[in-house]
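fyi for ur records
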Amino acid sequence: MCKPIILHIKSFLSKFEKNGTNKNRFLNLLYLYDYFMNEVYSKRMRLKEWAEQDRPREKLLRNGRRLLSNAELIAILIGSGSKDETAVELGKRILAAVHNDLSELSKLTLADLCRYKGIGEAKAITIIAALELGRRRKDNVAREKPQIKSSEDAYHILKPFYADLGHEEFWILLINTANKVVGQVQISKGGSGTVAVDVKSIFHAVLNAKATGFVMSHNHPSGALKPSVSDKQLTNKIIQAAKCMDIRMLDHLIISDEGYYSFVDHDDM
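which gave:
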């Protein structure tokens, strides 16, 4: 207890002794009050303080995942702690038991994790699953992204998308600064002789993927490879929009069962 409270106690005790009041009864009440202050009130305040500090989800949203400690990442996985400790404190205790070694943590079994107060079967499974995903990512050899060096490279990537189609579709390949394909997106689907294209959807897809360029393509189910007037108008329209946004448009391919037509190879763009 703090010094002012002790002085008050001595003062009360002296009065009680003068009045002949049962000092033991007073002391019992005093001990009860002291227990309440130390064990109940102070604990509630500690939890209230943690509510302001122990917010790993918000921290991740605000600062990014790399600034979170391992204990905070575990806290996000388990969601909550127990009545005696927060999720972050529980995460720290689990990590301390394995000397803060994530490799050792990944060796813990379901039963091992469930021995910790606050960790039930569901939380233990969540931790094990997250560590297994990390292990698989480490073991997975990244596949080399295909690079577009010519219209033929783009054609071989796009050809399977149009195989055996009886209607027109419009696809784009998303390209990075090294001309490597980072994704492909279907922009629209039409009828047997035409397909409507929303230009905004093309650039939305490019920006969303953080790509720096793209290759346009659509198919002609009829087999004809010569571009129509509307094909040329659309190509010119998108070229101008791409220039305004400093985005590279590498080519526009028309694909059919007979082969492909490249706007770049025929100096049409």
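The CA atoms of residues 82 and 117 lie 7 Å apart. thats all i got for now
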